[in-house]
Design goal:
The structure is a single chain. The chain is α/β, with parallel strands linked by helices. The chain has two domains: 49 residues; 147 residues, P-loop containing nucleotide triphosphate hydrolases (Rossmann fold, 3-Layer(aba) Sandwich), CATH 3.40.50. The chain is built from nine helices and four strands, in the order ααααβαβααβαβα. It has a four-stranded parallel sheet. Helix 3 packs antiparallel against helix 5. The mean pLDDT is 91.
Length: 202
């Protein structure tokens, strides 16, 4: 245990030792390595929900699907299984206040975290303010890099607060950076054809 605290494993040294290892030693190393990988994955899955910034704990098990309508070429199972992350594809959850949009977005994000997927949750207004502040402080690149580490980004309440030209440009940069590399889940009360009113530029 004392030695383990001092040294991470070096692959070449390990390979050299394994050349002369007995079957029993090989079995021990195999069990050890797999236990270490499982432990690290479990620790990561436990950390991810806290790092995501969810405002509440919501789960898909408690979600009311009764009033949800899906596009003809999409199924509920694809959303529940997080299949959109494989594309990666974006998801827009549209509806009036009280329809459960944020619940669905948080629950999907928490499930993703349990599967080891890094997620970041932001309200649209909060994300724009964060980007504007980072830009003013000369830290925009660092902020964008932090956002890029997530495989799933939730942008909640898009359309509740109008976004000025600079904020729109910065938010567009997040969306453009995510293209074909990350999934964005938007929740909004405005149909996509009306998003120009939010950004001030159709």
């Amino acid at each position: 245990m004392r030695l383990a605290r001092r040294l991470p494993l070096t692959r070449q040294v390990l390979a050299d030792q394994l050349e002369t290892a007995t079957p029993a030693r090989m079995e021990f190393v195999d069990r050890w390595m797999n236990a270490e990988i499982e432990s690290r994955e479990a620790s990561k899955r436990a950390r991810l929900p806290g790092q995501a910034g969810f405002p509440a704990a919501r789960e898909l098990d408690g979600y009311d699907w009764q009033n949800v309508r899906m596009p003809a070429d999409r199924q509920r199972s694809g959303l529940e299984s997080l299949g959109f992350l494989d594309g990666p594809e974006d998801v827009a959850v549209f509806g009036p206040a009280g329809a459960g949009r944020t619940h669905l977005a948080i629950a999907s994000g928490r499930k993703a975290c349990r599967q080891g997927v890094p997620v970041r949750f932001h309200t649209a207004a909060g994300l724009v303010m964060r980007l504007l502040r980072a830009n003013t402080e000369g830290k925009l690149d660092r902020e964008l890099q932090a956002i890029a580490k997530a495989r799933m980004i939730v942008i909640d309440e898009l359309g509740y607060v109008p976004i000025d030209e600079e904020g729109s440009r910065l938010l567009f940069q997040v969306v453009a950076n995510a293209y074909e590399t990350q999934s964005i889940v938007y929740t909004t009360n405005i149909e996509s054809g009306g998003w120009g009113r939010v950004f001030g530029d159709p």
